[in-house]
Design brief:
Layout: H1 3-10, H2 21-28, H3 36-45, H4 48-63, H5 71-89, H6 94-114, E1 117-121, E2 127-130, H7 132-143, E3 149-152, H8 168-178
Antiparallel strand pairs: 1-2, 1-3
Helix pairs in contact: 3-6, 4-5, 5-6
């Protein structure tokens, strides 16, 4: 995918336009793999405080649709959110910006391409395999009165959290923000 195609998907003309929930959602839910250099350039130029807010809002939104019984998946999302928000807010040098671009792209790839969830339609008992992103879309539709499913996210818990480091100051700031 070219830089122009990426920007078209994100509905922006330049990095400074990346300031809405829909921009981040379009990136994280993108099926096509953007060029790493284009993602890194975008992250370098985006307002980091705006990005931190968008990440927090996005993860809060999608976490609402994780079934209550899936505490491990919820924990993964919460840890990734904390890490990405913390990195965004403390993105003062090129090394941190590169790490943030790496982690956003790694999450996007896992969430929208590599993860596997299994759904059983409770009306027809048909099984479906799909990405975590698509399974959470089904959960959103279910909440709006759509088909009812039984979810199996057991294969989605393989997201490596050990690389995520959140500073104590970031955790305190996020806690204050949530209150």
């Amino acid at each position: 995918m070219t830089k122009e195609e990426l920007y078209e998907i994100l509905d922006i003309d330049r990095p400074e336009d990346f300031q809405y929930f829909e921009n981040l959602a379009a990136f994280l839910e993108c099926d096509e793999e953007p060029e790493y250099e284009d993602v890194a350039e975008l992250i370098k130029e985006v307002d980091k405080e705006t990005l931190a807010q968008l990440i927090g809002d996005y993860f809060e939104e999608i976490s609402d649709f994780i079934p209550e019984s899936e505490t491990e998946l919820f924990t993964i999302f919460d840890n990734v959110r904390r890490s990405l928000v913390g990195m965004s807010r403390n993105c003062n040098d090129e090394t941190t910006q590169t790490k943030l671009a790496d982690e956003l792209e790694r999450f996007r790839k896992w969430y929208s391409e590599d993860s596997r969830a299994y759904l059983t339609d409770l009306g027809s008992t048909e099984d479906e395999e799909m990405t975590l992103r698509d399974a959470l879309v089904c959960a959103r539709l279910e909440a709006l009165g759509g088909d009812k499913y039984q979810y199996d996210f057991s294969e989605c818990s393989s997201y490596p959290l050990d690389e995520y480091i959140v500073s104590f100051g970031d955790m305190l700031a996020m806690g204050e923000e949530e209150q």
